[in-house]
Amino acid sequence: MQSLLDNIYQEVFPMLGQGKVADYIPALACVEPRQFGIAICDNEGNVFTVGDADVPFSIQSISKVFNLVLAMNHYGEGLWDRVGCEPSGLPFNSLVQLEYENGIPRNPFINAGALVISDMNQSRFASPHLAVRDFVRRLSGNPEINADRIVADSEFEHRARNAATAYLMKAFNNFENEVEDVLHSYFYNCALEMSCADLARGASFLANRGYSQCGEEQILSPKQTSQVNALLATSGMYNEAGSFAFQVGLPGKSGVGGGIIAMVPGRFSICVFSPALNHMGNSALGVAALTSLTKHIKWSVY
Ligand code: GLN
């Protein structure tokens, strides 16, 4: 496993310098772009790392996965009345479909969908912004995980589009709580800082039929785990989901902080981090590293 990681790292490292860090969130614009790390957590709980795998970074939309899993733990099938399971084929923060489709977001991994899920968690937890943080602490076995307040505040200050999305859903009666309160929790979760090693461990239950080695507990049923992976495979990479499936062939989730988690079901979870993004908003080196991974292991879910 270690030599697999070393090979991928060597192969992709020369690309460092390609892409651009996200600058629509001002606090993220100053992140050093020349960082690159990978971690794998296998289904026995062993972790392998290379490069900047222990550097904490802003997980951004990767939090949407943990947000969803937490809600799935507390709401039954009824969750799917408020959010769909179809790919959107549009940018993550697009509003156009939402108007046509009566305020029901296409899936939980676009912003609209994650905001509905955050609204559900807001109704369920006494300290909703801490619920996801405590959940990822438990899943990754790292009690030090916290949000970067500067990033969370910066996102709140530039909240117009996410606020518009949430208010549109409220107009369609698909949003229970105060929009600003839910936005605070949502941005806090996006601003959580985790390393590749934390995220590989934290997502390992998705490669292991819902069982987390770290907490030694069943997080989701095997069926729910397959459902989350199916959604990740079709919608986890926004409007690059199709070519990611074509090229890489694994369920994965990216964030504008430059992280991507991906699962090789039955074997291991992997997290790649490199902050410079391609034109679709996914980590340029991250996509290249995962392409190299499936080339080396000669395996995809398809
Ligand atoms: N916090 C970001 C937003 O809401 C998350 C987007 C992302 O990582 N794609 O715009």
From TrEMBL:
InterPro entries: Beta-lactam/transpept-like, Glutaminase. It is an enzyme of class 3 (hydrolase). Pfam families: Glutaminase. Transmembrane segments: none annotated. Gene3D superfamilies: DD-peptidase/beta-lactamase superfamily (3.40.710.10). GO terms for biological process: glutamate biosynthetic process; L-glutamine catabolic process. The keyword Acetylation applies. Substrate binds at S61, N111, E155, N162, Y186, Y238, V256. Keywords: Acetylation, Hydrolase. It catalyses: L-glutamine + H2O = L-glutamate + NH4(+). It comes from the Bacteria. Its EC number is 3.5.1.2. One of its GO terms (molecular function) is glutaminase activity. Homotetramer. Belongs to the glutaminase family. PANTHER family: GLUTAMINASE. This is Glutaminase. It comes from Salinimonas iocasae. The gene is glsB.
